[in-house]
Amino acid sequence: MNALPDVLPVDAGEATLVGRVFDPESGPCVVAVRGEKVVDLTSAEPTMSGLLEREDLLDIVKGAGGREWPLADVLSGRLTPLAPCDLQVIKACGVTFVRSMVERVIEERAKGDPKLAADIRNRIEDAVGGMIGGLRPGSPESVRVKELLVAEGLWSQYLEVGIGPDAEVFTKAPVLSAVGTGAEIGVPAYSRWNNPEPELVLAVTSDGRAVGATLGNDVNLRDVEGRSALLLSKAKDNNASCAIGPFLRLFDDAFGIDDVRGLDIELTVTGTDGFVLEGTSSLREISRDVLDLVAQTVGPNHQYPDGFVLFTGTLFAPTADRDVPGEGFTHKLGDRVRIASPRLGALTNVVTHAEKAPQWTFGIRALMGNLASRGLL
């Protein structure tokens, strides 16, 4: 796993950080990072969902007592990092960056065949040229782009959610199924065209308040979703296909939603074959504000009594050829995927087949049983 400084934000001394770890002696624990120590908050609040709902959230995180471990134990294997969410629903937004929207159109048009991608990409560029970059959903310019693409026979459902009034919001993965930093991430053995999606993830309470941010990898099967958007769940929700972490940075006087809006998220994929892929997703280029995405997820028509975490989409869509010219990027076993942002830290995982990753067996029933056996419920 990464060295300690690589995991934490560069301003960790000012950051209010919470997370979850698995202690082999007791089970999952809600923790706070304080300097070089990890402090167990589980006796004060046994679930992350419950902790984030509390009015005294920051006071508990900064002052509540409990067992303490060296932070290095999270890296040495003594404590296993878990995704910093538990009972929250794992939601995601797609096509929130206009530039990556084009790649979704290409997937659809190519019917999941990477050999056709380059030609379709060129057709779209010829049709709309430089008009794509600065589009805002619902603007007169977006209407004009729609007209051009319809005329060229290139209109797509992805363009509808990319530049139309309604955001794409879907359930990424079941409650408690996300993996944390250091874990293997899964790509099914049958997939031949897939990629990581480095994203900002917001933690949102039951009343719709965004209270913190972290990083996520919305692992995606381009060959599956490209065959049909109705296969979105098959493309997105597989064993170990959702990674979140390393820690959740809570909003406070030192870090807030305006800081989130200016974040850059860096992606580095390092293959055992020597291939290196790098890219950046800048929140400054997002087409829909992150709080608008929250508002389109929760409201009078949909409630989340345990809160939710929300993937906010990515600008990054890899097009660099890895093997065959024109076929772009796809994962290989052993790829090391590092997603990082200076003020959120780094989330690192290694790619394996979803069928070979550790099976997800610790669900809600197991969590409740564990907490009850520890006298925490």
TrEMBL record:
Instruction: Spell out the family assignment given in the record's similarity comment.
Output: Belongs to the FAH family.
Keyword Zinc among UniProt keywords:
no
Give a GO molecular function annotation for the protein.
hydrolase activity
Is Transmembrane helix included in the keywords of this UniProt record?
A: no
PANTHER family reported for this sequence:
2-DEHYDRO-3-DEOXY-D-ARABINONATE DEHYDRATASE, FUMARYLACETOACETATE HYDROLASE DOMAIN-CONTAINING PROTEIN 2A-RELATED
Lineage summary = Bacteria, Bacillati, Actinomycetota, Actinomycetes, Pseudonocardiales
Q: Report TM segments.
A: none
InterPro entries referenced in this protein's UniProt entry, alphabetically: FAH, Fumarylacetoacetase-like_C, Fumarylacetoacetase_C_sf
Could you identify this protein by its name?
Fumarylacetoacetate hydrolase family protein
Q: Keywords in UniProt for this one? A: Hydrolase, Metal-binding
Q: Domain Fumarylacetoacetase-like C-terminal: where?
A: 166-351
